[in-house]
Amino acid sequence: MIRIQKAGHHGILLPDLNIGLDYSGTKADHIFISHAHADHMPRNRKLTVYCTRPTARFMKLRGFSGKMIEMEFEQPLETDFARITLYPAGHILGSAITFIESDDGSVLYTGDYRTPPSPASEGFKLPDAPVDQFITEATFSLPIYKWKSHEELAKQVCNFAKTSLSDGYTPIFLAYNLGKAQELMYMLKGLNHPMQIHGAGFKLCGVYVDEGFDLGDFETYNRETCEGKILIAPSSAPDTGFASNLKKVRTAYCSGWASNEARRTQLTADELIPLSDHLDFFELINLCEKLKPKKVWITHTPNPKVVEHFLQKKGISSGFLDVEALGND
Amino acid sequence: MWRRLEMTKPDPTNSFKRLSNIAQTIFETRGNNAKIKLAADYFQSLDDDNDLLIAAQFLGEGAFSDVSGKRASVGHRTIAVLASEFCEIDYDLVFKPCRTVTGSSSETIQKLFNNLPEARAKWSNGKLTLQETSDIYEQLYITSKRDLKQQIIKESWTKMSPLEVKYFIRIMGQGSLRIGFETRSVVSAIAKAFGKDAEKVRYAHMITGSLGETAVLAKTNRLEDATFELFHPLSFMLASPIESRSIENFSEYIAEEKFDGMRCQAHISGKKVKLFSRDLNEITGSFPEIIDFFATKNLSEIVLDGEICVFKNDTIMPFQHLQKRMGVKKPSQALLKEYPVLFVAYDLIYNNGQPLFDEALSQRRHQLEKISQAYHLPITSQMEVSSLSDVEALFKQALNHGNEGLMLKRKDSSYEYGQRKKSWLKVKKPSGSLDVVILYAHAGSGKRGGTYSDFTLGISVKDDDRYEEEFIPIGKAYGGYSNEELVELNKRIKQLTLERFGPTVLLKPELMVELEFEDIQINKRTKAKYTLRFPRFKAIRWDLSPNDADTLKDVERMYQQKIDKERTSQTKNPSFIMND
Prior knowledge:
The complex is a heterodimer.
Chain A: E1 5-6, E2 12-14, E3 19-21, E4 30-32, E5 48-52, H1 53-61, E6 67-71, E7 77-78, E8 82-88, E9 96-102, E10 105-109, E11 133-137, H2 150-166, E12 170-174, H3 180-188, E13 195-197, H4 199-210, E14 218-220, E15 230-233, E16 249-254, H5 261-266, E17 271-273, H6 281-291, E18 295-299, H7 304-313, E19 318-320, H8 323-326
Parallel strand pairs in A: 3-4, 5-6, 10-11, 11-18, 12-15, 12-16, 13-14, 13-15, 16-17, 18-19
Antiparallel strand pairs in A: 1-2, 2-3, 7-8, 8-9, 9-10
Chain B: H1 2-8, H2 16-28, H3 32-45, H4 49-60, H5 76-87, H6 91-102, H7 105-115, H8 117-120, H9 130-142, H10 146-157, H11 162-172, H12 183-193, H13 198-208, H14 211-219, E1 238-241, E2 253-258, E3 262-270, E4 272-276, H15 288-295, E5 299-312, E6 315-316, H16 319-323, H17 333-338, E7 341-351, E8 354-355, H18 361-375, E9 379-380, E10 383-384, H19 388-400, E11 405-410, E12 420-428, E13 432-443, E14 452-460, E15 471-477, H20 483-496, E16 497-501, E17 504-507, E18 512-517, E19 519-522, E20 530-533, E21 536-540, H21 552-564, E22 576-577
Parallel strand pairs in B: 1-12
Antiparallel strand pairs in B: 2-10, 2-11, 3-4, 3-5, 5-6, 5-7, 7-8, 9-22, 11-12, 13-14, 13-17, 13-18, 14-15, 16-17, 18-21, 19-20
Helix pairs in contact in B: 2-3, 2-11, 3-12, 4-14, 5-7, 7-11, 9-10, 12-13, 12-14, 13-14
């Protein structure tokens, strides 16, 4: 079995293969970055990393200045110790799951992923070869999380925009500015209504368009002309004066966390749309069952025990990938 | 095909599922007027009076009307464990972490019932009418056997959708439905539904003590029938703190000492006597000497508003003594002897078949004095005041008597039952303050949504052998800070957060607060064994560290000091007149 180490906040290290996954330390020759969200991008901005073309472009726009070697999906890279292949992860544009094969077996590292995939992504695909060790994120790792289909969510998103506009209100979607924002625009483009997106998100939209994702009629947010357009902004924006000149607005908060009722009382949003870019609990358990790996390693969750408990009932061995668990062997 | 037809049939107007859907829509709707309209339309759509009665009660009160005194009496843990069995999941391993995230047992149950195939196989959709649901609560009330209660609940869950189960549990709890729609809004919805004056509906609610009955009276144009009935408690008139308003003309007010006792309403007709507490529960059995006292007087029909105090050796004893008697349903002879109580009246709200709420205080007082003299009933002393210095002198005298402070009551005010307005003002001195540390922050809702505005505060027990913790909770406070301070606190909270439980966060103990409160009471159910009454922020003490926090021993000392405080006897300048 390939040895796996959690390198604290620096990501994951496969020490015998000199491979780092979303890693920003100094002990790896080959570092693979799953996608361009801040918690997966290297902290050290000068590293040399491997990633997909969209991820490279996003990272550059977000201030990464190291060398980025672009990889195509399903086109393996051979190193002295291993063969590495990227598959689309369905999380955001460019997001990849990383498959590592060596003489000691295989590891599939998910980064963040979504299955069924986000419609504004390259889809979701798994390797055909058997997976020995499956390192999976488990952000929504409790059975209280079960998502509606993308069709239902897209309908809720469009209805919210349509109803607000016809009632004379400017709709504001609060969503993370890379991934969720563009997914919303992708869902909304059919309304053929002009959209304005907050500056931090706007600069990332070009990558989507270049990759062939039509995001509709959009421009960067302009306080003076935003009235009556569909607005998209990060959830912190209303606190910093975003569209505060408009009297009649309705806001929709779009996030997997929106499924918790407490969010409603914590936020002043008119609508909560539980649109997640992670898979839900049941999708996770099903995927593990389908892959039947020798071992599932769970990361990115405060509740690994719940996943372990359910996997155990299915006869799948699993553990929490933690610094203590695997650090010093 | 037949089955599909059955499934697409709209829910009957009187189904419990429809009520649950309405409640959920109200929760998801912003703006009070929009919420009221939803409920009003719903009330209007119910043809049957009995369905309306149940619907209004479920939305505003719970499984039972407040005055019925009935409870389903099913514990939170029982429900959670039953739900875990229903879902075939481990309570500790699976249910608990889910509840930690949502911060709500009923929401967790709704989601698990929805998501888990094991649960989905058991429940069916919307089988119950409002009446059938009400019958289930009634069965739970009648049954005292634990296993039977559990069986009733489990069986009822098989007939409900997960959304219904959520509201079934919340209604059963007799508390808030947590949909941002409280009693006042239900009253407004009833008024709107049947085109009635909200004030008249509110009046009928006060009199009947039941939102369900009130809704039916409004619907059938019989609001006027809601008349006060003897032996049915009426909501109390409440006082505002004097700080909130400066008095222009003192002579419009009359002063009374504010007793450190228990508010009580006495309904009397000859030998029949009933006592009601502030939350309108009957407390007759706890105070036999008061019952005997009134029963021997052979009074005609009257209702008195007043205070129960422990009165011994011509002295009003502290509230802490009265606590020994509170909640004791059948006090022993020894307890009666050690803590004898007295009912001191200060208002008369019903006399000889005539409600007096609309009469001026001076008028009510006049009648009260006459009865007091004729039947030898203790009543409060009333003092004229004409200036602030009068008030200050009387305030000192009240404190010397061991009383809490002073009440100022407008002579021309009517008895504004159930309301806290400016006709009655209380003059009180904060009883003390403690330096405490913030242990938990809770996200507020509504206007304060998204910010942590409620706080659980801790005192130090690190040198206390009785505890293993460093700090234990002593109370919860949610006021007394400025908006700027709240912003600053929220910034620090983000940095100090250790763990999240739904809307609550556990903090690294660091933020210090000077906490003001009215009183310290013993409360065996809390970790500290003491609770503070009316705690609120006096100041955020950025200058202090958790090492400066006051200790549980300090609290115990303050409590003892209060008990031991010397009290002037009632022989001079008495707080009340015995008239015996």
